[in-house]
Amino acid sequence: MFVVRDEIEKELKKAFKKLGYDENLVVLAYANNPAVADYQCNSCFAVSKKYNEKPNEVGEKIVEAMKGNKNFEMSFAFPGFINIRLTNEYLSKIANLTLEDNKIMLKKPEKKLKIVMDYGGANIAKELHMGHLRSPIIGEALYRLNKLMGHEVISDTHLGDWGTQIGLTLAQLEEDGYLEGYFKRGENKEITLETLNEEYPKASKRKNVDLKFKEKADEITLKVQQKKEPYFKIYSDVRKLSVAAIKKNYLTLGCHFDLWYGESTAYPYIERSVNIFKDKHLARESEGALVVDVAREGENIKIEKKSEDEVQRYKNPMPPLIIKKYNDGDVYATTDIATILMRNETYDPDKIIYVVDYRQDLHFERVFRACKLAGISKESQELVHVAYGTMNGPDGKAFKTRSGDVIKLEDVINLIKSKAEERLKENGIVDNEKLAMQIGVAALKFGDLINVVYKDYVFDLDKFSSFEGKTGPYIQYTGARISSLLRKAKEDVGKISIEQSEERNIAINIIKLYESFTTSYQENSLNSLCLALYNLASAYSQFYNNIKVLQEADEKKRKSYLALSKLVHSCLVLGLDILGIEMPEKM
Predict the structure, then answer these.
(1) What are the φ/ψ torsions at residue 282 (nearest 5 degrees)?
(2) Helices (H), strands (E): how many in the chain?
(3) Distance of CA 515 to the CA centre of its chain
(4) Which of 133, 282, 364, 372 has the most CB atoms in a 10 Å sphere around its CB?
(5) How far apart are CA 35 and CA 354, in angstroms?
């Protein structure tokens, strides 16, 4: 491992120690003016305050103490900043090391963890729609990033296959005459995905106005959970049909799962989970339901602010968590707690990460607290909810069709593919379905992941699919351009020798790219990585436009340019792979 920031901090701490300063006061940041320096140390004011010295005197002493270092050029800037510029020799060394091993600058955590990741989370008996995009896109990228960091990661899509929507769908199917054969009253009518797409919405609307139907759906849900026939057989057939369609859509998006478990998989652990709360006297009865109090003394829940200027307001203390309904039926919290118990007994993970939208924040907070109270989750285990914002239309509301319907995921995929085909046609490329899909998926994923994970964003397909700007296709186009250059060169690359400003810019942005892996990992948000990829691609485009690589007569320089190009391609491929995006050879 070779981390540039750590190397600089180590040398600064040596200088601080030599001068008798507290080495913990070392503060390093990227330079505000990249034309002057690469990094800057902002410690002079803190040191001057602690040791009663003038900031400029502190700065000059530190610069003097680091004189003779062959890797860094140091200078003091009034009133109290130390500018650090990496030498060309040092940048060349870093570039050549990274060309040999493109993971050498990756700063991995000291402790290797076992992590279970829960994302995707589609409900069966319901077709995937646009609202299902963010969880698999974000989850897959975090899964890959955690594996890159050296952790053992197990991904589980954890299907919603055990809740109220099952009872509602089966109740509607029965009333519409689809299930006669299961009850030996006649022939079954064929159930297709289109059937389910019609039946569930119909049932969902009906439950709000038809109390008897709602009660019937609740009874069927309970019968399925108790594996009573023929309802469990009907449920199993519907699940199989739904999962096949879900897998197809996820595969198109480049999302793969180690486990295809669901809420139903945790069913055998439910009774034990509930009994743990009972035995530890943590559960009480409330209006026929069984609840667990998870509020803490003096605690109130924050009400989400609509603007930064708004005063923070609060609502009532955190409500109790229901773990059994009035009719002894299970709720989402019950299955989520049972799932944590199952995962801990099966895998004993150090961390469990859930990638679910921010509207479930309170739910997960209560579930996590309940598991800690009951000892279902040991104290050292991290339970993390990566809460993401919504994908909105130009009006700032959840993206829907003109008729007000939510767009099907399959339609979204076809839409991005068509948009990519349009862009390719402009470049003279037609009838390349695979390439169109690669570009379309890149547009969709990068357009999502470049946003801070918890923020809402506007879905703008024209902007996302552009071959220019901060887009996935732009990164792919840069990579394809490098591939073309290396093919045309038809010669071996040489050693990288950083000399010109365009080369320095590339080298610095490669260093920043590797730091972005760490930042994205720590923040559970891929926006830093996306921006770093864009900045590296932009730096290479400037190099490509200003330096005629293949026309360079000096063989040593030409081979160095080609080696640097090869390094950039390797870095872009690595970064895109973490995002779940493929790098095409041609565009």
Answers:
(1) -100, -10
(2) 19, 15
(3) 17
(4) 133
(5) 42
Give Cβ neighbours of residue 334 (< 8 Å, ≥ 6 apart): 270, 273, 274, 323, 324
Looking at 152-286, list the stretches that DSSP marks H as alpha helix, in order from N- to C-terminal side.
Answer: 164-175, 193-206, 211-225, 231-252, 267-279
- Residue 160: name the closest of 193, 131, 126, 133 by CA: 126
Q: What is the pLDDT along the chain (587 residues), one digit of tens a residue?
A: 889 999 999 999 999 999 999 999 999 999 988 889 999 999 999 999 999 999 999 999 999 999 989 999 999 998 989 999 999 999 999 999 999 999 999 999 999 999 999 999 888 887 787 888 899 999 999 999 999 999 999 999 999 888 788 999 999 999 999 999 999 999 999 999 889 989 998 999 999 999 999 999 999 998 998 899 999 999 999 999 999 989 988 998 999 999 999 988 998 999 999 999 999 999 999 988 899 999 888 887 777 777 777 788 877 788 899 998 876 666 889 999 999 999 999 999 999 999 999 999 999 999 999 999 999 999 999 999 999 998 887 777 766 555 556 688 888 888 888 989 988 888 888 889 999 999 999 999 999 999 999 999 998 888 998 999 999 999 999 999 999 999 999 999 999 999 999 999 999 999 999 999 999 999 999 999 999 999 999 999 999 999 999 999 999 999 999 999 999 999 999 999 999 999 999 88
Cα–Cα distance list, 560 to 78, 86, 101 (Å): 38, 19, 17
Neighbours of 256 (CB within 10 A): 15
Count the Cβ atoms, other than its own, within 10 Å of residue 551. 7
CA distance 186 to 166: 23
Residue (of 245, 137, 270) closest to 192 by Cα position? 245
Within 13 Å and on the Cβ side, how many CA atoms surround 420?
A: 27
Domains of the chain: 4-86 (3.30.1360.70), 164-240 (no CATH), 409-579 (1.10.730.10)
DSSP 263: G
* Identity of the amino acid at 353: I
Token pair, residue 461, equals 């397909």
